[in-house]
Every structure is written in C-alpha cells, then in structure tokens.
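Cross-check.
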Amino acid sequence: MSVIDVSEVEDHERFRAELASIQPDGRRRWIYARKPRGTFTRWREVVSALLVTFLFAAPFVKVNGHQFLLLNIIERQFVLFGMPFWPNDFYLVAVLFLTGIVSFVVVTASIGRIWCGWLCPQTVFMEMIFRRIEWAINGGPVEQAKRASGPWNADRVWRTFLTVSVFLVISFAIANVFLSYVLSSDTLLRYVKDGPMAHIELFGGLVFFTIVFFLVFYRFREQACLIACPYGRYMSALVDENTVAVTYDYKRGEQRAKWTKDDAAAQKLALVNGETIVRSGEKGDCVDCHQCVTVCPTGIDIRNGIQLECVNCTACIDACDNVMQKVGMDKGLIRYTSLSSVESGTNQSFFTRRIVAYLIVWLVLMSVVVTLFAFRKDLDVVVLRQEGTTWVTTADGVVNFYQLQLINKGQRDVSYSVRVAAPAGYAIKQLGMPGKVESMQILKGRFILRRSAKSAQISQETITLRIDYGDGQYQHITTSFLAP
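Predicted model, tokenized:
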C-alpha cells in the first residue's frame, strides 16, 4: 500500500467530483500525511503552543474572583475575560456573538481560512498533538501505511494499543477542560474530589465526550473539517479571486515536469554564475515531486487550485519552498497570494468594495458594542408586581405588593434606597431587605407600596420609583398600581 496514489494525483480534474479522502467506490482513503518542516510550520508550532496553554489555563485563571472564561449555558452564567454577564445582559452577548461572526466574515474574505489552519482547536489538536504522537509511536507515513496494510502481528498490536491509550488519556483531559468552561473550574475540582460515583450522571457525560473526542482524533480526523464542520462550507462561499490564500502560482509552475539530467546541469551552471536556474524548453518551475500533496492533512493537490478541503495550514508552502531551495529556484511557487495576483503577475489588493462593505458593517457593530458597554450600568434594577396579587385594602389605604431585584455588576458594595418619585400620596415599605448590595451579587426582596385614603381614587396608575445608589447615581423605574 502506497502513501499516495500518483495515478490519482495525475488526474487533475477528478478533484472536482470527489473528496481526496474518499475513494471512487465510497470507501475511506486514509491520509498518511508527512511531517512538514519550514518557517510556517515553526510559527504554527509557536501559535499552537500558546493556544493550547491558553485553552488549558483559562478556566483556572481568576480575574476579580471570576473565572477568566465561563460559558455556563445551563445556569445562564457567562464570563468573558473576567467580565461577568448576567441574564439581563443577554443582548450584549448576542451583539458580541454577531460581531464575532462578522469578524470571521471580514477576515476570511480578506485573507482566507486563517481560522481553520492556525486557530481552530480541531486543527491544533490534530496536527500539533495527536498526529505528532502518532509519528512518534508508529513512525512516518510510509511505515504507517505498510503496517496498516499488513497482518496484526505483535509489533502492530503494541503500537496500536499504546496509540489508543495515549489518545484516550489526552481526550479525557480535553473533555475535563471543556467541562470546566461550562460548569466552572471550581465546580469541576469539587466534583473530582467527591469522586465519580457522587456525580454519576456527570461522569457518564464526561466519558461520552471523551469517546467523542477520541473518535474525532483517532478515526474521523480530516472528515470533521470536510463533512461535520459547517464553517468550511460557509467560509468557502466568501472566498473569491481577490482573497489572499495558500495559492499555487500556475503561471510560474506550468508546464510541470519531473527533474531531469538537463535540469541538474542547468542547476550547476546557475550556481557557478550565481544565477537562478532556468529550466530548458517550456517546462515550468514545478518539478512534479508531489511533496505538497504528501504533507497535506486533507490529501488534496493544491496545484488544482483553491478547494473546499484546503484549510490553509501552509504545510504545502514549506514543502514546496524546501524543494525549490534544493533545486536552486526561487521560493514562493506556492505562497500566500490571491488568484488575481497570480493571473496579473502583480500584487493585487484584497481591499475591494466587498471588503469595504463588510468593514462598514463590522464598524457599525463595533460602535454598537462600545456604546452598549459604555452605558452599561453597574447596578441593574428590576421591579415586578408580586405574582398572584392585585391589591389589599387596609385602614390606611390600598396596598400593592412588589418584587425587587438588584444586580450589582461592579467590584464594590453598593448602598441603595428606594422611594416614590411621582405621584404624591404614595409611601413605600421594604420587607426585610438589607440596604446594601454586595459586589457581584443578585439581591432579591419585596416591598409594599401604599396609597393613602386621602389620595385620588384611581383604579390604575403609573408609579415612578427612584433608586438612589453609589455616589449620587440614581435610576427611575416605572410600574403600575392597581386599586378597586
């Protein structure tokens, strides 16, 4: 079994009708990617190390007593970069989410699928952790392919067992980290201390997601990007001829031809004269070595042009640059550029009218986000009528019952007071509520609103309450008062 079927690669139009990882009869074509080496790979390793460190550390970092990142959908608790968002801040979360989507649109339409190749957890874990472990245990792609097509001997059994064991351990760690983003790291550590039997349902869910992560990285792999992930399909619609992406310079590379003795002689002559080699005849710079294909984690041939499967991981750039350097030709046969730049032979700007339109939308959304955060109050006040009540008639007048909720979003305790601003003739009495709201606390209580018997007897009236708090700050809240 070969690592790459050259006959399939030579069929330059087949990629339009089928995925590189799927055989014509529908069976899986396993991708044994070769380890890339080069400048872009080193930068990706640095970025991946930072991202993995951030992913594992963020749930355990505290900012003003809050987890750095928390996405507790179940209890509607969200903390972004140490800033808590309460249930009544959902509009902020929605606007931030929408702004994030538009940011993805702007970036992808401008410089391609940078997210997929450099930042996506699937790519980072698969290429920088799991595949490297596989290389360490099972050897290179040729060795892996031969072993996979061979018998189940002792060598294959122990390597497979070790690979599966290591993958399961790392998948379990990833599942725990993702759980800490949902439940909070404090809750997770408490559950770990209590033991799995004390929280058997949660432990069952943890095992389930461990198996999911294991199957994704052990078996599903690139299929997660090609089939399951909607982002690739969604973002591919945003790429056009002006988008900067990993692109093969077909004008320079075609007609592709194998390296020959004449090319080797021309190379020696160019080295003597200190010149760049020029191949004889109509041959292009591409030596048809297939190195760009063997390093591709999705198994595509980038020379066929921009394809759905390409995640812009830059592995093919490093592979091609290494070959170009060896044969004495200029690097950049495969590089970050746009199709329009390749066709015109000059660097074309990606800053088109479409990008300008996207940027305008993005700037509007960012202005909305900044404005909403600028006018976000430290104390939110909610006044609701007591459920199941209308009014009560007493000797002193008509009484209505209300619920009061105070949310202190600031870092300091806040003293407050509530009084009736308008109309006259009403008095308020709090029912056992303290006069202070602690930092990051939701305080709930009740109060009574009484209308004196001497006031105008109106069956329904709008009441304006004034809540004074902090250093001279106040809010006006309107509610209704009912009477017979």
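The chain has two domains: 1-376, 379-482. The domain at 379-482 is CATH 2.60.40.10 (Immunoglobulin-like). Passed to J.P. for a second look.
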